[in-house]
Design goal:
By secondary structure, the chain is mainly alpha-helical. It is built from 8 helices and no strands.
Length: 182
């Protein structure tokens, strides 16, 4: 039994970054690549050489372009969740999946996708107004209160800790550096 990992079915196997980028630019052009990927090396003075230089230095951008190559240009079905967590070059494509025809992309479709992303982002931003979980702590900090500083418990009774009361004459002076000094 062979222990070899079948990377050979991955369309990125044996394809250099420059070769992949040339294929994408020849088929789609820099305008569509910028519209779909929102990477500015495809907008400002676009060239294959400068884009390759940027993508070699920037892992997140290279992985984004490789994912675009796999799932838009080669039309592979979406990877499983465990495979999707890996970088595109490390993903194992099942033997029964083969690359298809490149997706037909347009600038109008890219604009609709950008609007959809903007709407989703706005919904997430509105969700911060309703703090839950770890956001509740952040909202309490912004409001100037902290769970340890509250004077009442959840049941509405007074605080058990006398130092948390609002009367400064009953509160003890606590030295936060006491353990460090000794």
């Amino acid at each position: 039994m062979s222990d070899d990992i079948p990377y050979k079915n991955n369309p990125l196997h044996g394809v250099s970054l420059k070769q992949m980028l040339v294929e994408l630019v020849d088929h789609y052009g820099f305008n569509i690549l910028h519209a779909y990927l929102n990477i500015h090396c495809f907008k400002t003075n676009p060239s294959v050489e400068s884009s390759v230089k940027f993508l070699k230095k920037t892992d997140w951008a290279r992985e984004k372009v490789e994912g675009f190559y796999l799932y838009q240009f080669k039309s592979l079905p979406r990877a499983s969740d465990e495979q999707f967590a890996l970088p595109p070059r490390d993903r194992i494509v099942p033997a029964d999946q083969s690359p298809g025809e490149p997706a037909q992309l347009s600038l109008e479709a890219a604009e609709r996708l950008a609007e959809k992303r903007l709407k989703k982002s706005a919904e997430r931003a509105r969700g911060e107004d309703r703090p839950t979980g770890s956001n509740r702590y952040r909202a309490d900090r912004r409001a100037g209160r902290h769970a340890d500083d509250r004077s009442t418990t959840r049941s509405g009774e007074g605080a058990a800790n006398p130092s948390a009361s609002s009367d400064p004459s009953t509160a003890k002076a606590v030295d936060p550096w006491a353990k460090w000094r000794s």
